[in-house]
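Worked example 2:
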Amino acid sequence: MSMQRQTVLALIEAYNVWDLEKIMSFHAPECVSEVLPKSLNIPPMDNTAFAAYLRDNLIPTLRNFHIKVYDIIEDTVASKVAIWGGSTAETDVGPYVNEFLVVFHMAADGGKVVRFREFVDSASFGEFFARMKGQAATMA
């Protein structure tokens, strides 16, 4: 198994235990993370912004978060790994279910992610966050 594939699978495991420090340890210092499509209006994030996005928005909201990998495509020449998968979690507004495709651009040695592009199911993503906003409004 290639180093870049090992790195990506270890990163997925870090997500499955929802360990922010471990997740971020796989990001190169110059890593840029994107949640796509662009219609979601989530700007690209450096490591500081991405860690804050996880820490302040997702980790407190999504309990028992789990990723299931359906398929992996690897290009060792271009230093890229793509994963098609699904994620699930429990939340205060009901189950969270999302399908995604992530393209990981890897450092030349395969040990770190230098660019993270996650394409989410925008309908599911939007519906979930609308429920979250609705709950927040009723609690205000």
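The chain has one domain: 3-139. The chain has four helices and five strands.
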